User: Fold this.
Amino acid sequence: MNNMDKAILNAFPLVAVPTSEPLPGHTQCGTRYLVGKAGLMREITLPWIRLVHPVATCDADITLPYGPMESSVEMWCSEVPAELIRQFTADARQALPNEIAAALIWNSTIDVWRYEIRRSLRATPGYVSFEEVRLEDDEHLVVDIHSHGSARAFFSSTDDQDDFGSMKFSVVLGNLDKPTPSSAIRLCVAGRYFPASINELGVLGVVL
Assistant:
């Protein structure tokens, strides 16, 4: 095996799922590929989440000689404090009719969240560009949130471009001129999007 292929395999290990014992957990953050009975899965491990999802499945009449593996998600960060969502809602209403953006940041060492508005470089009722926040040691941008002003919440083609390849929850709040805003939320993981949710207690959920 040449050095390039060795480097790729080290960066993205390929692991056969055992048939008679549990799969050893990934000991470091990163991505590895798991070959199981039904096909190929991708496992992504970050300080705040572990996600396993299918990449390719076998035909119905073919099974591979490895162990079973199911899609799963484990949230390792604490619940998002409800006051951070309320703060963004208030700030977004204050910014009407223009859009704004903010970051909800989690510290994995002390288990503390913080809220930071992204400084707008250009903001209109249909667009916002901004200066990215700076993260301190052990901080992770878990929730990327922006507003759609008085328009409904949805993920635009611009949002798709911005979110492509990222690792985060992406949230949009819209209809901020009304008593109850509309919302859209998804989990972005290296080119894939999964429907997500956040309840009144700040618990993040993902539908695989």
User: Anything to note?
Assistant: Residues 1 and 7 are 10 Å apart (CA to CA). Residues 3-75 form one domain. The chain has two domains: 3-75, 82-206.
